[in-house]
Design a protein that fits this description.
Layout (H helix, E strand, L loop, with lengths): L25 H19 L9 E5 L6 E4 L15 E4 L4 E3 L6 H13 L5 E5 L2 H7 L13 H4 L5 E4 L9 H13 L5 E4 L3 E6 L2 H23 L9 H31 L9
Parallel strand pairs: 6-7
Antiparallel strand pairs: 1-2, 1-5, 2-3, 3-4, 5-8, 7-8
Helix pairs in contact: 1-6, 2-5, 3-6, 6-7
């Protein structure tokens, strides 16, 4: 969400052309293509909400630089050169557009809280967000299906809603779970949405996709009114180990397959 009264607008007006990289490194260009692909795929799966929500990627290098989406661009239209580059203070380094305050505060804090996360994806996707609206045991993703087990031990829950994240303090508050639990990759934000983070675009998007599937199964099971048939703890542990053994390879293969589907679309207008 954005608030036009408090939104910080960063454009490249007044920034000398010499300070704006024209093409960037090969790594940066590949990161741009992958992140743009993730936006378009997320729109296809209905993970977006209007022109809100945001994805970010920390670029390689010693300085703090992030790719992030500009406010006002529909995810179906996101291209590699649409993405903005900002520093750790949210100041625009390259690109044309503005960074929504909530995007700046949520993402910079999240990246700083857990440096192993190169990519941070924040959405209000329907089924995962439904869990953030519930209370008690129903608000926790139950280990009642094998898809849910891939997230065993990797989830944290922020139980307090503090309004729109329009301050540094609110962004830091939301990121504190990652600082306390470095193994956390999934953060459910009470009455809000989810943050899914990973070491690569492929890993983060794979988790985003399967998290929504797992939450859909959870919500549908709750709707029956019958008790959940939980998987025994020892089998949960075994299955979790099996998932983690091959997860990076499977994530790359899944993302590669989705890229190919996207490239066949007539409206898709950039190459990978």
């Amino acid at each position: 969400m954005t608030n036009t009264d408090t939104q910080s607008t960063y454009s490249n007006a007044g920034v000398p052309d010499a300070e704006l990289p024209e093409n960037g490194s090969d790594d940066e260009q590949q990161d741009r293509r992958s992140l743009a692909c993730a936006f378009q795929l997320a729109e296809r799966f209905g993970f977006h909400e209007g022109i809100c929500n945001h994805f970010s990627l920390r670029l390689n290098g010693s300085s703090e630089r992030y790719l992030i989406n500009p406010y006002g661009v529909h995810w179906s239209l996101m291209r590699p050169d649409t993405l903005l580059m900002i520093d750790g203070e949210g100041q625009l380094l390259a690109g044309d557009g503005c960074v929504e305050d909530t995007a700046r505060f949520i993402h910079v804090a999240a990246h700083r809280a857990n440096p192993r996360h190169k990519v941070v994806l924040h959405t209000h996707m329907p089924y995962a967000t439904t869990l953030t609206m519930l209370d008690g045991a129903s608000a926790r993703l139950s280990m009642a299906h094998q898809t849910a087990i891939r997230f065993h031990g990797r989830i944290a829950y922020e139980n307090k809603f503090g309004g729109l994240a329009q301050s540094i303090e609110e962004g830091d508050r939301m990121a504190k779970n990652a600082e306390k639990s470095p193994q956390t990759d999934i953060l459910f934000l009470a009455n809000h949405g989810v943050v899914v983070s990973g070491s690569s675009v492929a890993m983060a998007f794979d988790d985003l996709y399967y998290l929504e599937r797992a939450c859909r199964q959870h919500v549908l099971a709750l709707q029956t009114g019958a008790p959940l048939k939980l998987i025994p703890d020892n089998i949960v542990q075994l299955t979790s180990q099996q998932f983690h053994r091959d997860m990076p390879e499977f994530a790359e293969q899944h993302f590669s397959a989705l890229r190919k589907v996207l490239q066949r679309s007539p409206e898709h207008n950039f190459t990978f």
